[in-house]
Every structure is written in structure tokens, then in C-alpha cells.
Write the C-alpha cells for this entry.
Amino acid sequence: MAQFAAYEALRTPRAELGRRRDRAAAAWSLADSTLQVPHTEVSGGLYTFLDLRAWGDGERFVRRCAQLGVGLAPGRNSGAH
């Protein structure tokens, strides 16, 4: 998947890549300024880690978000970090 993404990036005109980068940066900024729970800084990717320990293990939250069309996964699926 990473090789395909790199291939597509190389085929995409620089101006378009710039527009996409700007849109991603705006989305990162919006997420960081809007989220009202502790979370990792959003940068360089399309994800953040929410600290939901104050509300239990987060499983119910993840399921509820999925019902609403928001894709989440428990952070422990990404390792101990």
C-alpha cells in the first residue's frame, strides 16, 4: 500500500499535492482545536490517539462512533505505546 501511495504521489502534479497538503493541515488543526479529550497531536497522518481512560476502556465509545459512521480502533491494536 505504501508503494502505491508513493507511486500516486509521484504521478500527481505538485500544485495538486500542495492543495492536498493544505487541506490535510487544515483538518489537523481543526481536530486539535476541536477535540475536548486528551489526544496526541494530529500531524503527518490522518489519525490521533484519544485518551479515553477517564471513561473506561473506550470500547463502548468506539462502537458508538462506528454506529455513527466514524471509523475508530482501540489504541491497543497499535501496540503498547
In short: The CA atoms of residues 62 and 70 lie 9 Å apart. The helical segments are 2-11, 14-34, 59-67.
